[in-house]
Structure formats: structure tokens, C-alpha cells
């Protein structure tokens, strides 16, 4: 249908529209900005409620909740105040999101790379424990986060036994062909760090004998390492004289 | 002209009464109240808070849908039956017709908001009585809600929100002339206006390389969108009912926003109506 020309619109109507638009923009600019505050993070609803909310399609809802949770991690122009968050609630949210989308890696990435970086050992350990628990649920898919947790336990927390237990679980459970060899070898180097050369040597020797490692450069590197372990083992043994 | 405007508004209200709109609203609110009782029973803790929160949010959403669908259906029928052509052939400016319709639909919006508020009051009252007689306990949430002025503030804020929705739907029907595109636009607009502040927060994440031009452009786009949309997430907040933290200042700001955006929608709607070739 052909419309009438612009001139058919009375001037007061045009003036009203323009003036109201300008006022709206000014009003919106003057409004105080909404900011995410750590204390506003609520506890998550139960998994069945979240499933009902997803209307049968949980993955988009999981992704939406992840982005929403992420909004609590930042305030415009200010560095991330993770430390202020209630980690019990954070963990519960991450767990619910994983329940909605078990193949998603985002919550584990957030747990190990973001929430575990706070300068609070208790919170760091809480996040690493969370990653460990969830890793056991799907080790062949979630192994990178477990490996990261083992490195964090070793170098950030300086807790070798914890790092070793993570690395042992990594080697024992993440056994799919897509998992690189270094993930399984982590425990060997941790044993070496702890001065348990014999265990490290036996594990490394077993790995080489199993034929799992095929790359000649990697085999060469591991043999060199095995020889060093043997030397270290000899020098650490008490003299028989 | 003013008397003609009021006559059109009165007939718009009469039409709503005769198409059984009040009954439809009452039945929907009754069903939502039953739903809220179910939700209250399955909640492990804070069951009264969960019940009122569910009822308030769902009633607000249902009110928006019912109002916009009724308005769009009524206006499209008038266009199809050539009632508009007939009205405009009389000595009545287009602005008079538009204002009369807007006034009538705003009256319907206020009535729906009043029904929703009364429903929440009734549920709180019945919940208090039930707790007193059957479990010999008292609910602080329900008793605080039933006796505080925050429910009235919430109702007034909802009325303003629905008046804005009425103005928006009227503008959309005049522009699109069909129910489907008009309602689709209204729903999308409503969702976006209610969530724009959350979207703004998400877009400004420090985790997203804030100096990257892509991210900066996205932030600017969202900011511009936020300037052009009404701040609907400040209207009829459920927290006013649950925390009793509503205030006249917040309601006043809602009023200013409704006035500004209502004027904008009125101007835009009139602009389109004056350009229409009947």
C-alpha cells in the first residue's frame, strides 16, 4: 500500500517523536549502571528445576547460565574480584551447568583457570577438588583440566602428594587414544620430584616397554630421563662401606 | 475533540468487557495461583518466597501476553471491518482516534495490573490463614507482604509497565497491520528490554579482551541499544514483594520512564498513522 508523504504528518507529531527520543537517550544515559556484585550470586536451583526450565533442550540453558555466572566475575573497569564470591555457590553452579551439558568443558575451564587462581589456598583447593571429582565422571574428555590441576597443586600449592594423587588418577583413568602420553607421564616426574627414584624408574621403564610411545624423539628423551633416574637412584643409596 | 477521545476510550473498554477479557484474565491468574501452590509444595526451603516469586513473575508475563494479544486482535479486526475508515471519515482527527484507543487500552492495562495485584494479595492472605489454622505457624514472608505497601507499589509499577506494552503493541499494529509480526515484535522487544542490563554486563566482561576492536564495537552496539530501550527490568521487581524494598523513588523513576517512552511510542505511532493511506 502506498503511504502518504512525510509532509502529511503534522509538525507537532514529528516534534513529539523527536523530543521524546532525545529525552529517552538522555534519561538512559543518566540512569545508574547496573553492576554485578559478588554477594548477589544466589544458590542454583536443583537440577530437575533447571531441566524443567530448559524446556527439553538443556544445552542452550547451560550455556546461558555459564555466561550469566561469568558476569559475576567481572565489574567494568575493575579487575576480577573472584575472592569475594561464595565458592560453595560457585561450585554448585558449575556442577549444575555440567549436569545440564556434560560434554561442555566451559565450567571446568572456569574452575581450573579462573576460580582456582585466587590468592586463597582454601578456595584453590576447593576448585581443584571439584575438577578432580568431575574429571572422574568423564576422564577421557576432561583430562586437560585434571592435568592443569596437578600442575597447580605442584607449583602453586606446593602440595606434592596432592599433585601425585591427581597425576596417578590421570594416568589410571584417562586412557583413550586421544590423551597424549605426557599426561600419563606426569606422575613419573612427580615421583622424581619427591625423590622416589625407584618408583619413577619402574614406571618409566614400564611405559617404554609397553610400546605405547612410538615417536623416536620422545623415546630418546624418555631413555635419557630413565638413565638420569638410574644415576640419581644410585647416588641417593647409602654407601655399603 | 476531547469528548470524542473519551467516547472511543469507553468503547474500547466496553469491547474488552464484552469479549470476556476479564474472565480470561481471572482464569489465567487462578491457574497461576494453583501453579504457585504446587511450586510452594515442592520447594524444600523458603517455600513462601518461592511461591510469591513464581506467582509475581508468571502473572507479569501472562498479563503482558494477554494484553498485547487482545489489543492486536481488536485493532486488526477494526482495520479488517473498515471501522477505522468509517471513524476517520467523521470529523475526527487521526490523533483523536489514536489517543482514544491508547487511553482505552491503558485503562485495560490498569485493570489487569489491579487483578494481578489482588491475586497476589489473596494468595498471601490465604497462605497466612492456612498456616495459622492448619500448621499453627506463621509465615513472615506472607504476613509482611500482606501488610506492607510494597504490594501496592508493585501493582502501580506493573500498571505502568503494561501501559507501555499497550502503547508499544498499538504502535506495532498500526505499523505492521497484522497480528503475527506485531506480536512477534512486541515479544522480542519485551524480552530484550527486560534483559538489556544483563546483556550489557555480559558484553563488558574483562575476560573478553576489552581492547580488541571487535569487543569494543559489540559493547558500543549494546550500549546504544540500551539507550533506545526502556529500562523494563526496573519495573514491578519481584524483590519489592519478597524483600519489601520498593520505594516511592523507584516508582517515581518508573513513572518518568513510562512517560518518556510512552510519549516516544505515541509520537512514532501517530507518525505512522498519519502516513497511512486508508
Categorize the overall geometry of chain B: globular
Give, in order, the helices and strands of chain B.
HHHHHHHHHHH
Helix content of chain B: over 70%
User: How many structural domains in the coordinates of chain B?
Assistant: 1
Can you give the mean pLDDT of chain B?
Answer: 88
- Report the helical percentage of chain A: 55-70%
Ends distance of chain B: 21 Å
Summarize the structure in words.
The complex is a heterodimer of chains A (241) and B (278). Chain A is an all-alpha fold. Chain A has a domain at 42-73 and 80-160. Chain A is built from eleven helices and no strands. In chain A, α8 packs antiparallel against α9. Mean pLDDT of chain A is 81; it is low at 75-80. Chain B is mainly alpha-helical. Chain B has one domain. Chain B is 83% helix and 0% strand. Chain B is built from eleven helices and no strands. The model of chain B has no long low-confidence stretch (mean pLDDT 88). The A-B interface holds A 1-6, 8-10, 13-14, 16-21, 23-25, 27-29, 31, 33-36, 67-68, 70-71, 73-74, 76, 78-80, 114 and B 95, 197-198, 200-202, 204-207, 226-231, 256-257, 260-261, 263-264, 266-268, 270-271, 274-277.
For the structure shown, list the relevant keywords.
heterodimer; A: 241 residues; mainly alpha; 66% helix; 0% strand; B: 278 residues; 83% helix; globular
Amino acid at each position: 500500500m502506498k503511504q502518504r508523504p512525510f509532509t502529511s504528518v503534522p509538525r507537532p507529531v514529528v516534534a513529539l517523536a523527536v523530543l521524546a527520543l532525545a529525552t529517552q537517550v538522555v534519561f538512559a544515559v543518566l540512569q545508574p549502571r547496573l553492576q554485578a556484585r559478588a554477594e548477589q550470586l544466589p544458590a542454583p536451583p536443583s537440577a530437575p528445576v533447571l531441566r524443567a526450565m530448559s524446556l527439553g533442550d538443556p544445552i542452550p540453558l547451560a550455556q546461558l547460565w555459564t555466561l550469566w555466572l561469568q558476569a559475576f566475575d567481572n565489574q567494568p573497569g575493575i579487575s576480577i574480584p573472584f575472592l569475594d564470591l561464595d565458592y560453595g555457590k560457585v561450585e554448585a553452579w558449575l556442577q549444575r551447568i555440567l549436569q545440564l551439558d556434560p560434554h561442555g568443558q566451559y565450567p571446568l575451564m572456569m574452575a581450573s583457570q579462573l576460580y582456582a587462581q585466587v590468592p586463597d589456598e582454601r578456595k584453590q583447593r576447593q576448585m581443584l577438588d571439584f575438577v578432580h571429582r568431575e574429571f572422574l565422571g568423564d576422564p577421557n574428555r576432561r583430562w586437560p583440566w585434571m592435568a592443569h590441576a596437578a600442575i597447580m597443586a605442584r607449583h602453586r600449592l606446593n602440595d606434592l602428594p596432592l599433585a601425585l594423587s591427581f597425576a596417578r588418577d590421570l594416568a589410571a583413568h584417562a586412557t583413550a587414544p586421544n590423551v597424549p602420553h605426557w599426561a600419563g607421564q606426569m606422575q613419573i616426574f612427580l615421583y622424581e620430584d619427591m625423590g622416589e627414584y625407584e618408583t619413577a624408574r619402574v614406571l618409566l621403564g614400564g611405559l617404554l616397554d609397553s610400546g605405547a610411545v612410538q615417536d623416536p624423539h620422545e623415546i630418546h628423551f624418555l631413555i635419557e630421563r630413565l638413565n638420569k633416574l638410574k644415576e640419581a637412584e644410585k647416588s641417593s643409596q647409602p654407601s655399603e662401606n | 475533540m476531547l469528548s470524542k477521545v473519551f467516547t472511543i476510550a469507553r468503547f474500547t473498554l466496553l469491547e474488552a468487557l464484552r469479549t470476556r477479557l476479564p474472565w480470561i484474565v481471572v482464569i489465567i491468574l487462578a491457574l497461576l495461583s494453583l501453579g504457585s501452590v504446587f511450586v510452594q509444595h515442592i520447594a524444600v526451603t523458603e517455600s513462601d518466597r518461592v511461591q510469591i516469586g513464581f506467582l509475581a513473575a508468571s502473572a507479569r508475563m501472562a498479563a503482558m501476553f494477554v494484553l498485547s494479544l487482545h489489543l492486536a486482535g481488536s485493532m486488526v479486526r477494526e482495520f479488517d471491518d473498515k471501522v477505522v475508515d468509517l471513524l476517520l471519515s467523521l470529523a475526527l482527527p487521526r490523533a483523536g482516534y489514536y489517543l482514544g484507543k491508547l487511553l482505552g487500552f491503558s485503562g485495560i492495562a490498569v485493570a489487569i495490573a489491579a487483578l494481578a495485584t489482588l491475586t497476589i494479595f489473596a494468595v498471601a492472605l490465604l497462605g497466612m490463614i492456612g498456616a495459622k489454622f492448619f500448621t499453627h505457624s506463621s509465615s513472615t514472608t506472607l504476613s509482611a507482604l500482606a501488610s506492607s505497601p510494597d504490594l501496592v507499589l508493585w501493582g502501580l509499577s506493573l500498571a505502568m509497565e503494561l501501559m507501555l506494552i499497550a502503547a508499544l503493541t498499538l504502535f506495532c499494529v498500526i505499523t505492521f497491520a497484522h497480528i503475527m509480526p506485531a506480536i512477534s515484535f512486541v515479544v522480542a522487544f519485551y524480552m530484550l528490554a527486560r534483559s538489556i542490563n544483563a546483556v550489557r554486563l555480559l558484553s563488558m566482561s574483562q575476560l573478553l579482551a576489552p581492547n580488541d576492536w571487535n569487543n569494543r564495537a559489540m559493547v558500543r552496539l549494546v550500549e546504544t541499544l540500551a539507550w533506545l530501550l526502556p529500562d523494563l527490568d526496573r519495573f514491578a521487581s519481584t524483590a519489592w514483594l519478597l524483600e519489601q524494598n520498593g520505594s516511592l523513588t523507584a516508582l517515581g523513576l518508573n513513572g518518568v520512564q513510562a512517560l518518556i517512552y510512552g510519549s516516544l511510542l505515541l509520537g512514532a505511532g501517530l507518525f505512522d498513522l498519519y502516513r497511512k493511506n486508508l
